[in-house]
Amino acid sequence: QVHVVESGGGSVQAGGSLRLSCIVSGYSFSGYCMAWFRQAPGKEREAVAAVDSDGSTAYADAVKGRFTVSRDSAKHTLFLQMNNLKPEDTAMYYCAADRRAVRDSPPSGFRYWGQGTQVTVSS
Predict the structure, then answer these.
(1) CB within 8 Å of 29: residues ≥ 6 apart
(2) What is the mean pLDDT of residues 64-69?
(3) The pLDDT value given to residue 27
(4) What pLDDT was estimated at residue 29?
(5) Residue 9 pLDDT
(6) pLDDT tens for residues 33-56?
């Protein structure tokens, strides 16, 4: 059984920073693609950043240069460092994992999801 748990969300002012963490258990972490998605009220879930099992990364255009995704395989943890946050970054952020996914897979390509952590950015 795979378990995914996110943490690190919160409320910040525009220009601030947050670091999200995602701890996974129940599988061989090193063989999985890991990703962050977000969903704002009334909008579809969208990709934010992903890292393949080989360490290669991908980012949505909206977050390039501001967000950094990384993984610590020894600690079974995925991170998302978010800098220069903007009000439009406000959303529920979800961590996802799947051995069969790749870094540009859509949400439907991931079987394992966390419950989400809320990020709110005020202007």
Answers:
(1) 71, 73, 76
(2) 98
(3) 73
(4) 67
(5) 96
(6) 999 999 999 999 999 999 998 889
Annotate 35-103 with DSSP letters as a single string.
Answer: EEEEE-TTS--EEEEEE-TTS-EEE-TTTTTTEEEEEEGGGTEEEEEE-S--GGG-EEEEEEEETT--T
Show the tokens assigned to 114: 């966390």
2: tokens are 């795979």
User: Are 78 and 19 contacting, i.e. CB atoms less than 8 angstroms apart?
Assistant: no
Please say whether the beta carbons of 9 and 17 come within 8 A. Answer: no
Instruction: Determine contact, residues 19/83, Cβ cutoff 8 Å.
Output: no
pLDDT of residue 89: 98
Q: Which of 53, 56, 68, 64 is nearest to 98 (CA)?
A: 53
Contact by Cβ (8 Å): 36, 94: yes
Residue 20, classed as helix, strand or coil, is strand
